[in-house]
Amino acid sequence: MISCYVIPEQVLKIAEDIRSMRIRGAARIGRAAAEALKIAALSYDPLRHGDYTRYILMVSDHLLKTRPTAITLPNSIKYVLKRALAKSVLNPVEATVQAAEEFITRSLKAQEMIAFFGEKILEDGHTILTHCNSSSVVSIIVRAHNAGKNIRVYATETRPRFQGHITVQQLLKAGVDVTLIIDSAVRYFMKDVDLVLVGADAIASNGAVVNKIGTSQIAVLANEADRPFYVAAETYKFSPNTMLGELVPIEERPITEVVDPEFLKRNPGLKVRNPAFDVTPPEYITAIITERGVLPPQAVPLILIEEYGWSPGEEYELEKLVEEL
Ligand code: RUB
């Protein structure tokens, strides 16, 4: 039993902010989880929390349960735990703080590199279509704009949570020419678009991209109109577990995000579904812009083997530890 362990208030707050989407977007979710582990380590008191390994695994488990699709959540936690709980580590508390800080720094640096590579793809006079709100996508567009390129953007509203509103506000603030469109207007505007650029929540070992619901429809429309479809994603969004045969779980969010509870009451028997993400197959993806360069989706398994050292045993051991809690 682990209920006697007390999770620090600030960590509970971060977990709740991720669950309720006050903290959202895969990159921010990953950094927030690392920050939460750092806070947990700094608040560790052996008298109150008992054994450190059990304590930090319990905190990790609590964070892992907040949102299922963004692979950045388990990947950032695994990044920290692997370094903090390695057998050779003398001070796991210190190692947790150090690894968490390292993950956050690497994540921010990766985004800078993505903006650096991605900017080269955008040409002066280009019109880009984007969906949802990706910090990597925004950083590429803003960098191209700041480099003096005349870039126009169509941003979808992204129902039901309207993350497109965040995108247009961020781009407007940077001085980019941006037009908000409804999600169902994508095909109408596709003829005016030079390329599509979206972010990712997870990338499977076959190069398929999991991103905000609607992304795969846009990819099909880009393909129909013969427009390039780019994905901007840090390599820590690549999913090692898909290499072990697992699927990326697709989060289903409350149906009240789609319809008013009153509407439901007035229409008994109505079924509503609200999947938050979908999967775009690799054949629709021109390239993935990562911090390691612009890669074809076929390169994903190579990077996974390189980054994770193809160590399914290690992954397995870590998951077993959490399961045994
Ligand atoms: C956000 C979403 C974003 C990716 C990439 O979904 O689908 O496109 O997370 O974002 P939600 P980033 O709003 O449900 O979290 O590039 O910032 O990691």
Q: Care to describe what's here?
A:
This protein has two domains: 123 residues, Four Helix Bundle (Hemerythrin (Met), subunit A); 196 residues, 3-Layer(aba) Sandwich (Rossmann fold). 46% of the residues lie in helices and 12% in strands. It has 13 helices and ten strands. The chain has a seven-stranded mixed sheet with strand order 3-2-1-4-7-9-10. The chain has a three-stranded antiparallel sheet with strand order 5-6-8, covered by helices on one side. The structure holds ribulose-1,5-diphosphate (RUB). Ribulose-1,5-diphosphate (RUB) binds next to helix 2, helix 7 and strand 6. The site of ribulose-1,5-diphosphate (RUB) has 15 residues, from helix 2, helix 7 and strand 6.
Round the Cα radius of gyration to an integer and report it: 21 Å
Number of domains: 2
Side by side, the strands of the main sheet go 3-2-1-4-7-9-10
Using the coordinates shown, work out and report the CATH topology of the largest domain: Rossmann fold
Hetero ligands = ribulose-1,5-diphosphate
Structural class: alpha/beta
Strand content: 5-15%
Report the average pLDDT across residues.
Answer: 94
> What is the architecture of the largest domain at the second tier of CATH?
3-Layer(aba) Sandwich
CATH class of the largest domain: Alpha Beta
CATH 4th-level superfamily of the largest domain: Translation initiation factor eif-2b, domain 2
Q: For the report, how would you describe the main beta sheet? A: 7 strands, mixed
Q: Report the order of strands and helices.
A: HHHHHHEHEHEHEEEHEHEEEHH
How many helices in DSSP terms? 13
The general outline is: globular
* Approximate helicity band: 40-55%
Task: Give the strand tally.
Answer: 10
